[in-house]
Request: fold
Amino acid sequence: MRMNRRDFMFKAPLAGAGLAIAAKGISGITDAPRAVLKLSSQEGVIPGQNLREKARRMDKWGFDGLEVWGGGLPKRIEEVKDAIKGTRLRISAVCAGYKGVLISDDKSVREQAVKSIKEILPAAGDLEATGLIMVPAFNGQTKLDHVEGRKILVDLLPELGEAARKAGTRVLLEPLNRGEAWFLRQLADAAAICRDVNHPAVCMMGDFYHMGIEETSDLGAFISGGKYVHHVHLASRKRNLPGQDKRSFRGGFQGLKWIGYQDYCSFECGVIGAREVEIPKSLAFLRKEWEKAVL
Ligand code: MG
Reply:
């Protein structure tokens, strides 16, 4: 079609802009690395006499990661390294285990949290964990309102982020459901705190159990979390193994695919029935859900 001058002035630039938007839209997906499903579990979920035995069993079942408790971790580094030696497992994340409360109304309790977290971070870095999971305050742990609490948290996180960066790991905010922690309930809110802090080692995570209570869309929640999401907890609606009730993981997995998620999805749940039978079944269920989570 021949284009006159008026067409050229008005239509061509618009056509160009349209192409640019389309290209950006496509690259927005394809530029993200291909997401991976790396399955992990907290140590307490797995049967075994000791950590080594648990790790061996996890390796046999096809797990990729092991999540360890942060309390006392500096003294357990060798035990943990030894447990995963010769297996495919890596340490996925370190779950809390610090003393104090990050947004306590009592300054000395906040300082206790900072000190305690800084003691665990080098161990988390040594074990190459993606991060140390933190809950700013459970219900009843602070008298501060949400405005005061958020300000305190945003002021305090850069120091912890810097300690995490130096240790080679991250701090990860975990939103919980309102029954446990009104202060931080949704992934988008945790991500907004990370954005405001703007430190590369201050990130967050999502937990399917809490998300089932608080989020209107698992897909939307993970997209809102975006680049800040560096760990995921897996549990069914009633907080048992995925697949043991009607909780779907497809929307959440679509979200993880959308953001090109590279970290671990880790069991934090109870088990109905024999663990040796039910855990491998749950792994198979999750791999199917991942396959069916088509964007
Ligand atoms: Mg959790």
Remarks:
- Residues 32-292 form a domain with the TIM Barrel fold (CATH 3.20.20.150).
- The pocket of magnesium ion is lined by residues 174, 207, 233, 268 (CB under 6 Å).
- The mean pLDDT is 92.
